[in-house]
Design a protein that fits this description.
The complex is a heterodimer of chains A (292) and B (157). Chain A is α+β, with helices and mostly antiparallel strands and 292 residues long. Chain A has ten helices and 14 strands. The radius of gyration of chain B is 16 Å and the shape is elongated. The model of chain B has no long low-confidence stretch (mean pLDDT 97). Classes of the chains: A alpha+beta (292), B alpha+beta (157).
C-alpha cells in the first residue's frame, strides 16, 4: 500500500531532534535509512503521527576502527561498513555478516543505528553487538548514557531505549590480538533475513581454546549468547568432537515457544546447530592461521 | 509539514515538484515528473523494480521519501546514457535478457552500479544483482548480458 499520512520534520541538529522526541514521545518515529520503517508503514503495521528524519543531523556517521575497538555512529550505512577494508583483526564476523544484510540498494540506505534500534531478532547487527560486548550510546534532552548490549535487546523488536531517546552510536570491543571471529547464516535466499545465524569469537593458545563467544541469530525473540556452548569450548582442543558438542549445546538456546509449529522449531534447532558448527570451524581456522 | 515543494536534479536536469511528505521518490518520479521507466513491483523494497541511483548509489525509490531526495541527484533508467549504457542495453537485447521488461529498468540501474566496481567475478555479479527479481527470464540471460559487458571492458575476473 502507499504510506499512511504523517507529519514530517527534518531537524538540523541533534539538540533539535532530542527536543522533538521529548515533546512527542511515542507519537514520533525516528527515520534513519528507512529500510525497515518504511516497509512497515507501507504494510500499515506502523503508523507514526510524526517522522523525525535524521538526514540533516551532522556528526552521527563516523566510523572509527582503533586498537580498543570499532565505533560506529548511528547513521553509518551497512554499505559504509561493507566497503571498509580496515576494520582490523578480530572483526572478521562483521566482514562476513554485513554483505548478507539485504541487498546493495538496501545497504546503501540502511543504517547500523536503525538496525540496532529496530531489533529484529533475525537481523545480523544485534547479534554482532552481543558478540563483541558492545555498548549502545543514547541521548535524550537531559543527557547521554551508555547501555551494555547484553540486556539491551529485551524482546521482539524491543530494546531498552526510552521513547525520548535517540540511539547515537555503538562501540564494539576488539577481541584480543590472537583471536579471530566468524559469522555464518542460513537464509532461504541470499539477502533474506537469517533463519539461523551464528557469530563466534575464538582465541586459541597452546592448542587450547582460551576464549570462546557464540552469539545466535534467530534462536529466540532476541539475539542470545550461547553461554553453555562457550563454556564447553574453553580448554578444549577445538577438534571436531568439541565443535560438535558445542553446536549441540547451542541448540538448547532455540526457544521452541517462539514457533507455533513444532516442525519449524525442529528445523531451527538443526539450522542453529549447523551454523554454529560452521562458524566455529571458520573462526577456528582463522585463529590457527593467525597463530601460524 | 505534510506537503512541500522540492528541488532536485533528475537525469542531469533541475526539477521542481510539489509533493505530500508521504509520497515516495518512486511515485514522484512517475506521477509528477512523468518518468515512468521506474516501475512499482512490491512497494516494500524486495523486488528491485523501482531501483534508481541517488547521488550515484542504487536505492529502492519506494523506500525513499520524495522529500529525502531534495537537493540531491537522481538517475533513472531514462537517464542512463553514454557508450557504457549503450553497450549494456545492447547486451540485454542480444542476450534476450528481457521479456516483459518490467524488471529491466531496475536491473539496468543495478548493473550500472555493479559494473562501476570492476574487476568483478560472475559470482560477485550474482550477489550484486540478487536484489532484483525477474519472473520471465530465469536470470541466466540477464547475468550473461552483464557478464559480457564486464568481459568486453576487460573487467571480468
Amino acid at each position: 500500500m502507499k504510506l499512511p499520512a504523517f507529519e514530517y520534520v527534518a531537524p538540523r541538529s541533534l539538540e533539535e531532534v532530542l527536543t522533538t522526541l521529548e515533546q512527542l514521545g511515542d507519537e514520533a518515529k525516528v527515520l534513519a535509512g528507512g529500510q525497515s520503517l518504511l516497509p512497515l508503514m507501507a504494510f500499515r503495521l506502523a503508523q507514526p503521527a510524526v517522522l523525525i528524519d535524521l538526514a540533516n543531523v551532522h556528526g552521527l556517521d563516523g566510523l572509527s576502527a582503533g586498537d580498543e575497538g570499532l565505533t560506529l555512529g548511528a547513521l553509518v550505512t551497512h554499505r559504509n561498513v561493507e566497503l571498509n577494508r580496515d576494520l582490523g583483526h578480530g572483526f572478521e564476523a562483521i566482514v562476513d555478516a554485513v554483505p548478507l544484510i539485504g541487498h546493495v540498494a538496501i545497504r546503501n540506505r540502511g543504517t547500523v543505528g536503525g538496525s540496532v534500534a529496530h531489533a529484529d531478532p533475525q537481523a545480523e547487527w544485534p547479534a554482532l553487538l552481543l558478540l563483541f560486548d558492545a555498548t549502545v550510546n543514547a541521548s535524550n534532552s537531559r543527557g547521554e548514557r551508555s547501555i551494555d548490549a547484553d540486556g539491551f535487546f529485551t524482546g521482539w523488536f524491543t530494546t531498552g531505549l526510552h521513547d525520548d531517546e535517540l540511539l547515537t552510536g555503538v562501540g564494539l570491543r576488539r577481541p584480543p590480538p590472537s583471536a579471530r571471529s566468524a559469522f555464518v547464516e542460513i537464509a532461504r535466499r541470499h539477502g533474506d533475513f537469517a533463519l539461523a545465524g551464528a557469530a563466534v569469537v575464538l582465541d586459541i593458545s597452546d592448542g587450547e581454546v582460551s576464549e570462546a563467544r557464540v552469539a545466535l541469530v534467530g534462536s529466540s525473540s532476541t539475539p542470545r549468547r550461547a553461554s553453555e556452548s562457550e563454556a564447553s569450548l574453553i580448554g578444549s582442543p577445538l577438534d571436531a568432537a568439541a565443535i560438535r558438542q558445542a553446536s549441540e549445546i547451542a541448540v538448547q538456546c532455540v526457544d521452541e515457544s517462539s514457533e507455533s509449529d513444532t516442525s519449524k522449531a525442529r528445523y531451527r534447532q538443526r539450522a542453529v546447530r549447523v551454523v554454529t558448527e560452521r562458524a566455529l570451524r571458520l573462526a577456528g581456522d582463522r585463529a590457527l592461521n593467525a597463530a601460524a | 509539514m505534510t506537503a512541500t515543494t522540492i528541488r532536485l536534479t533528475v537525469n542531469r536536469r533541475s526539477c521542481t515538484a510539489r509533493v505530500a511528505v508521504r509520497t515516495t521518490l518512486a511515485d514522484m518520479l512517475r506521477d509528477e515528473l512523468h518518468l515512468t521507466g521506474t516501475h512499482l513491483g512490491c512497494e516494500h523494497g524486495v523486488c528491485g523494480a523501482c531501483t534508481v541511483l541517488l547521488d550515484g548509489q542504487s536505492v529502492r525509490s519506494c523506500l525513499v521519501l520524495a522529500v529525502q531526495a531534495a537537493g540531491r541527484d537522481v538517475t533513472t533508467v531514462e537517464g542512463l546514457d553514454g557508450p557504457e549504457a549503450d553497450r549494456l542495453r545492447a547486451a540485454f537485447a542480444s542476450h534476450h535478457a528481457l521479456q516483459c521488461g518490467y524488471c529491466t529498468p531496475g536491473f539496468l540501474i543495478a548493473a550500472t552500479e555493479a559494473l562501476a566496481r570492476t574487476p568483478i567475478s560472475r559470482e560477485q555479479l550474482v550477489r550484486e544483482l540478487s536484489g532484483n527479481l525477474c519472473r520471465c527470464t530465469g536470470y541466466q540471460s540477464i547475468l550473461d548480458a552483464v557478464v559480457s559487458v564486464a568481459d568486453a571492458a576487460g573487467g571480468l575476473e
